[in-house]
Design a protein that fits this description.
Blueprint lengths: L2 H18 L10 H10 L7 H18 L12 H16 L7 H7 L1
Length: 108
Amino acid sequence: MQNLELMLIEALRRDALRQQEGRLSEVGKEFDEAEEYRSLHRGESSSKELGIALTFWDAWVDQVRHGFQQNFYGGIGPADWIELAREIAAQLEGKQPITNALVLKHFC
């Protein structure tokens, strides 16, 4: 598994726990690090799933930072981000395609 993929799996799981525990200010804490890694390792191959997961994470962090006040992602409420993050992390880890209709609608 590639380093960026591992970083993302771990970050999605950490952020799900952070949000669940009410530590919203910590959600996305590793995002800039992942973006920096991505820019420094442009030669690494990237899967469609990895792209979807990164787009999802970016949107989630944005929603958290805006206190979920503006929901640009119909059908995804504050608590749904937690479950979707865990689902995406598990699919990346298991090398499975991301198939959730809401995720594909908004982040594909």
